[in-house]
Amino acid sequence: MDIQLHYLEKGTGEPLIFLHGNGEDLTYFSEQITFFSKKYRVIAIDTRGHGKSPRGTAPFTIKQFAEDLHDFMETKEIPSAHILGFSDGGNIALTFALKYPEKVKKMILNGANLKPNGVKFFVQLPIILGYRIASHFADKNENAKRNAEMLSLMVNEPMIEEIDLDALPMRTLVVVGTRDMIREKHSRAIASHIPFADFVKIKGDHFIAAKKADAFNTAVDVFLKKDSDAL
Asked: Which of 60, 92, 180, 231 has the most CB atoms less than 10 A away?
């Protein structure tokens, strides 16, 4: 790995890794870190080029972020962990789980999507327009280049096929807000294709982990307590 990811670690027990969304950092999970560190070894990571993690020279893609997570776990000697990903963090978690299923104990996907069209059109349209504008000026302006890279993650990625999810062996929780920016049909399709997946809706928008922390934490806590062997 060409960089060292910034992270926060708190608590003891089974490892529980948090992956934040596009343009955010690990502080998004402040309520989850406080709650779950009482029971788990919580590790919240800043994705490459986000928060305090450097951009590095490797590609700025979901697949690369998944490789960064793999390298991080190898360096920290974490053979497997529960992984909770929000939005793009959920897409990273899915991409990681598809390539390294043995490294994922349980997976929580909050507002993840398989393809860009999983995002509601009225949300996606300004993102596409912003991406085109930023891309136009990317060669002349560093801020525009950075914005183009960030927006590209939502315009051009991820590209995961539903059929690929059929082979995932780990228990998974797909959790979304009732007014989420991800199409409900899309989220339900993710849950239906993962063999051992639960689907939960929490009243709120895309950012339920921050805005509805008690309900979100309770749903995740109940899920993590389920017997992994009782498949």
From this structure: 92
Beta partners for residue 43, in sequence order: 9, 17
Kindly tell me the burial class for residue 188, based on how many C-beta atoms sit within 10 Å of its own C-beta (0-12, 13-18, 19 or more).
middle
Q: How many CB atoms lie within 10 A of CB 227?
A: 7
pTM of the model: 0.96
* Dihedral sign of CA atoms 93, 24, 70, 143 in order: positive
The two tokens of residue 188 are 């339900």
Residue 130: both structure tokens together:
């912003």
Residues 44-95: tens digit of each pLDDT:
999 999 999 999 999 999 999 999 999 999 999 999 999 999 999 999 999 9
Q: Contact, 9 vs 72, CB < 8 A?
A: no
